[in-house]
Write a structure and sequence with these properties.
Mean pLDDT: 93
CATH class of the largest domain: Alpha Beta
Cofactor: Mg(2+)
Organism: Breznakiella homolactica
CATH superfamily of the largest domain: HAD superfamily/HAD-like
Number of domains: 2
CATH architecture of the largest domain: 3-Layer(aba) Sandwich
Family: Belongs to the HAD-like hydrolase superfamily. CbbY/CbbZ/Gph/YieH family.
Keywords: Carbohydrate metabolism, Hydrolase, Magnesium, Metal-binding
Pfam families: HAD_2
Order of helices and strands: EHHHHHEHEHEHEEH
Structural class: alpha/beta
Low-confidence stretches: none
């Protein structure tokens, strides 16, 4: 576990895909199924570069790269429909997620969610895991103009929580997510999830490979 010092915090903000939900591979599958409708085949490595990023960025790139005769809103709706169906049938929590939630529930910190996924995707997962009421603020990719690595989604989460960005710590599993949190002026715990691909988490203050380690880190840093 890589370690650097973490400041005193009053709020913790979670990414969703790859941190709470083991859904990154389902995101890959949804994108592959979408592109297959247009006669395009891509491998997992191609799609991994978009982990944690806004859906519109990915769709704009594939329209240009493969010359798709479709607009971003049309592709976006199709991909969301495919992904929601996969999530309802197959998504599971990341190992240790329930234990982490229990360990954090009694700590004196506010809890936020900041996910680049569209709101229907976020709500599908939160309802399935019965987590919606656990969060004090939920911000999705539909709520901001630009997704990660832009810091806007984390800044909006801090605003809704009523805390300073400097008093927040973020849990992220992707390079783009870590970059967004750092740009927002927040501390970051990088979570290494092998299902998220080969993500560079080196800019995180600490990197852990178990969610169950996180409550102890938060407890030591909470006001």
């Amino acid at each position: 576990m890589k370690q650097r010092s973490i400041t005193v915090i009053t709020a913790i903000i979670f990414d969703m895909d790859g941190v709470l939900a083991d859904s990154e591979l389902l995101h890959v599958l949804a994108s592959q199924r979408l592109l297959e409708r247009y006669g395009v085949t891509v491998d997992e490595a191609f799609l991994r570069r978009y982990t944690g990023m806004d859906n519109a960025v990915f769709l704009g790139d594939v329209i240009r790269e493969f010359g798709l005769d479709a607009a971003i809103p049309e592709l976006h709706k199709q991909r969301v429909d495919i992904l929601v169906g996969l999530l309802r049938e197959q998504v599971e929590p990341v190992s240790g997620m329930e234990e982490m939630v229990r360990g954090i529930s009694d700590l004196p910190v506010k809890r936020g969610l900041a996910s680049s996924s569209p709101r229907p995707v976020v709500m599908t997962i939160l309802k399935k895991f019965d987590l919606f009421e656990w969060f004090d603020a939920v911000v999705t990719g539909d709520d901001v103009e630009r997704g990660k690595p832009d810091p806007g989604i984390f800044l909006e989460a801090a605003r809704q929580l009523g805390v300073s960005p400097a008093d927040c710590i973020v849990v992220e599993d992707s390079k783009n997510g870590v970059a967004a949190a750092v740009a927002a002026g927040m501390d970051v715990i990088g979570f290494f999830n092998p299902n998220s691909g080969d993500q560079d988490l080196s800019r995180a203050g600490r990197v852990v490979d178990s969610l169950e380690a996180i409550p102890g880190l938060i407890r030591a840093s909470a006001v």
